[in-house]
Amino acid sequence: MNRAQDVVERHLHLYNGILEFVPSLHNELDTISTDKLSKIISTITKGMSDARSTAFSSVKHKGLKYVPSNMHSKNDALDPPIPELEDKSMRGIAHPQLARWLCPRNKLHIFDSNPEEGMEKLQSGKIKMAATSWPTGFYEDGVYDPQDKTKGLFRNHVVARFYSHLYIGPSAAMSESTSSKASKQARNRAFGLSSVTKHIVAIVHIITYFTLSNAQHWTNEIGTMNLEELFWAIIDMLDDDEDPWVKDTMSWWNMYVQIHQNHHY
């Protein structure tokens, strides 16, 4: 499929998704006025933008707490610490631990051999960050097989905690395996979400990537990484419902959510 066909497919995907949420719109498309359609599109676009802003605002500072393997251990804390500032210049490839998380997994051996040089190479673009090379932080910690790059992919604890924060509640993300009770209904149940979908998995990975980056405001491109391309690359990986790896990955996500959602009550 060439790039033009790819763009058309993505637009059709979004179009069909809108019709699923607003089925009555389908019957009006042949007769609807341009002005009315423009207003509908504007409302949908604003709603998407507001939802994105709310999500980013919610995890902007708390999201940093989810990076250490042990969130409650000072030994695992970010070093240097990142204060809760509006400015994000201390994040991303300017911070050793976050730079390692964002570094392409197939280049991690270069980074780990000399983290200071690794950060410089990420900053200069000598190590290119792109949707064709999965970030280290998209993999389960310590799991990677160059011969099977799906092994451990999309099973990172940081991204899973971001899901808990956004779709169950911040208390679920912070308490993790504890049995603390929440005072509010889990958000995914309030939204009527019965399971994790490939789109949710993709969205949470993008939100996590953006939050840990040094981008000050939402943008599709952070350095050499195009987040729109990254989103669709994740969707493409999870697109075949019959693929054993896809089934296993989605099963992992739904089991993770079920466990943490149950602890939330």
Structure, described:
This protein has 265 residues and is an all-alpha fold. The chain has a domain at 51-90 and 130-263. The chain is 53% helix and 2% strand. The chain has a two-stranded antiparallel ribbon with strand order 1-2. Helix 7 (157-168) crosses helix 10 and helix 7 (157-168) crosses helix 12 (244-263). The protein is globular.
Entry keywords:
265 residues; mainly alpha; two-stranded antiparallel sheet; 2 strands; 2% strand
Which structural class best describes the helix and strand composition? mainly alpha
Given the C-alpha coordinates, what overall shape results? globular
- Strand line-up across the major sheet: 1-2
The helix tally amounts to: 12
Q: In percent, how helical is the residue content?
A: 40-55%
* Number of separate strands: 2
N- to C-terminal distance: 47 Å
Low-pLDDT segments, ≥5 res:
none
Largest sheet: 2 strands, antiparallel
Residue-averaged pLDDT = 86
List the helices and strands in order.
Answer: HHHHHHHHHHEEHH
Percentage of residues in strands = under 5%
Radius of gyration: 20 Å
